[in-house]
């Protein structure tokens, strides 16, 4: 279930076979942070359009990185049973290249994951490398030019490399040609790093991996070394170096080529990180981002969007988190007359999730996500017709009943309910707004207004004019109007566009001036004629 750098290459062929046979794939990610607080006005807001939110989220995605990616591969084994292989991939940016990678940590995100038992040592010491197309192109150019280097800046990597170099340099002076020595206890991509560094530093050595965390070092002549470098059996050929440095990107490209339905929960940030880390740096254009994602994954299903529909159409409790939705779907008899939901069985190597809950572990959340999709789709299918539903519905039938939700990704706190990755977004519709008129309180800021009203309800605030602010909230309450009816400095009323909009007021003022001048001209013209 857990895959790190040490075992990734060995697991890749099996993962490819399972993805190609899959019915669909569910995905979840854990990040070093969500929304950067160091950037001004970067918090998500009810005022945001999808394009405005993309600009904010893009800046955060560029600062943070992935800690863990979970994949749950759902395969239909027989007519009414889905078998799930769930994986946790610990990821760490590739250190093989000409430029080092920098990323930011959010204290609250790290603390949150630590509370749920996340093992940061696996991320740091055994994370699978990855790179996007731009980084790969740069590395390829430096490999061809021979100007690449290993950016092993962590203390752990430096210690491993220093120990290996010290052992080899102390041995090589007394060694004869064709003598060998063994380096031991090399984990994951240290196997490649050590060989590359030794070959670059010493012209008269050759290296070969032996497996079982061991590398053989042989003393050779420069002529023999050149022959070995041109051999097709060299484990450090440029194409193999590139394959190793690409790491998880190899699996990402398998997913892209397979074109299986991709399932997530509140998956906008997941899609943005997929694009930025494994495909290309996020474009400035929101529409270009949508187009790219749709080309990579033509069928995307966000279970947050699906469960919103289930809550409206069925007697479904209003729960928000993925784990809560899963629990309700598993425990409730929401479809007493229809055929039972398909059986969802964890594969033998993934049985831990059947025995123990592991919230905010990416592989577990991906499993929940795919399970919620199947149960929700089955429920919607049974409610969509008065006719009897087949005892064992096909996944294509589920996709048909989910058609209105396909490629619609949930949009949290904004002007639309979802982002449409296969067409135009719906027009923005904001909840009813309040307007605050300030009197006798000079210099009041948006932050101060927010602090003033946050006890009543969670509002987003935007300045309307020098002495006016707009408040937006999904939970609009008459309580605010009542409590501030007699406030000495703040007058609160329902926002009316024709009354409070600065542009409308400006237009009315101009129209009034024009009307006044017209009236005066008419009066003066009439006086002269008399």
From TrEMBL:
Main location: endoplasmic reticulum
GO function term, MF aspect, one: RNA binding
A biological process from GO: priRNA 3'-end processing
Keyword RNA-binding: yes
Keywords: Endoplasmic reticulum, Exonuclease, Hydrolase, Magnesium, Membrane, Metal-binding, Nuclease, RNA-binding, Transmembrane, Transmembrane helix
Pfam family name, one: CAF1
Annotated SUPFAM superfamilies: Ribonuclease H-like (SSF53098)
CC annotations in GO: endoplasmic reticulum membrane; nucleus
Reported cofactor(s): Mg(2+)
UniProt membrane topology term: Single-pass membrane protein
Record carries keyword Zinc: no
Compartments reported by the entry: Endoplasmic reticulum membrane
Similarity field: Belongs to the CAF1 family.
Protein function: 3'-exoribonuclease that has a preference for poly(A) tails of mRNAs, thereby efficiently degrading poly(A) tails. Exonucleolytic degradation of the poly(A) tail is often the first step in the decay of eukaryotic mRNAs and is also used to silence certain maternal mRNAs translationally during oocyte maturation and early embryonic development. May act as a regulator of multipotency in embryonic stem cells. Is a critical factor for proper spermatogenesis, involved in pre-piRNAs processing to generate mature piRNAs.
Identification of the protein by name: Poly(A)-specific ribonuclease PNLDC1
Organism listed in the record: Catharus fuscescens
Gene for this chain: Pnldc1
């Amino acid at each position: 279930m857990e895959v790190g750098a040490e075992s990734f290459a060995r697991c890749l062929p099996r993962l490819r076979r399972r993805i190609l046979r899959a019915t669909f794939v569910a995905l979840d990610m854990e990040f070093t942070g969500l929304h950067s607080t160091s950037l001004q006005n970067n918090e998500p807001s009810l005022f945001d359009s999808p394009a405005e939110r993309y600009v904010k989220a893009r800046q955060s995605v560029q600062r943070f990185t992935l800690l863990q990616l979970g994949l749950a591969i759902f395969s239909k084994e027989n007519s009414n049973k889905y078998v799930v292989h769930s994986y946790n991939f610990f990821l760490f940016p590739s250190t093989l290249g000409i430029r080092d990678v920098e990323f930011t940590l959010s204290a609250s995100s790290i603390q949150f994951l630590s509370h749920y038992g996340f093992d940061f040592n696996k991320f740091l010491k055994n994370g699978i490398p990855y790179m996007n197309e731009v980084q790969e192109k740069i590395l390829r150019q430096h490999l061809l030019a021979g100007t690449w280097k290993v950016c092993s800046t962590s203390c752990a990597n430096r210690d491993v490399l220093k120990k290996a170099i010290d052992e080899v340099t102390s041995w090589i002076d007394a060694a004869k040609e064709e003598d060998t020595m063994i380096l031991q206890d090399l984990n994951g991509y240290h196997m490649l790093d050590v060989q590359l560094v030794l070959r670059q530093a010493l012209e008269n050595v050759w290296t070969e991996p032996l497996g079982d965390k061991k590398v053989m070092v042989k003393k050779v002549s420069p002529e023999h070394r050149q022959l070995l470098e041109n051999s097709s059996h060299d484990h450090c050929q440029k194409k193999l170096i590139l394959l190793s440095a690409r790491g998880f990107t190899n699996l990402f490209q398998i997913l892209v080529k397979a074109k299986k339905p991709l399932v997530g929960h509140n998956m906008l940030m997941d899609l943005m990180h997929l694009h930025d880390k494994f495909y290309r740096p996020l474009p400035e254009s929101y529409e270009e981002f949508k187009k790219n994602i749709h080309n990579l994954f033509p069928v995307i299903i966000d279970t947050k969007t699906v469960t919103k529909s289930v809550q409206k159409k069925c007697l479904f409790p209003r729960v928000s988190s993925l784990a809560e939705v899963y629990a309700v779907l598993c425990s409730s008899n929401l479809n007493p007359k229809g055929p039972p939901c398909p059986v969802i069985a964890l594969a033998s190597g993934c049985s831990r999730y059947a025995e123990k809950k592991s919230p905010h572990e990416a592989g577990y959340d991906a499993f929940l996500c795919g399970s919620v999709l199947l149960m929700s789709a089955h429920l919607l299918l049974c409610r969509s017709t008065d006719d009897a539903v087949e005892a064992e519905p096909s996944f294509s039938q589920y996709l048909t009943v989910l058609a209105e939700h396909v490629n619609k990704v949930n949009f949290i706190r904004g002007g639309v309910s979802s982002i449409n990755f296969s067409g135009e977004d719906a027009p923005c519709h904001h909840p009813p707004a309040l307007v605050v008129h300030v009197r006798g309180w000079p210099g009041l800021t948006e932050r101060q207004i927010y602090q003033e009203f946050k006890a009543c309800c969670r509002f987003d605030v935007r300045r309307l004019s020098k002495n006016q602010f707009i408040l937006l909230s999904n939970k609009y309450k008459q309580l605010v109007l009542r409590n501030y009816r007699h406030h000495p400095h703040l007058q609160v009323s329902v926002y009316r566009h024709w009354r409070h909009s600065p542009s409308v007021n400006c237009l009315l003022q101009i129209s009034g001036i024009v009307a006044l001048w017209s009236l005066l001209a008419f009066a003066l013209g009439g006086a002269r004629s008399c």
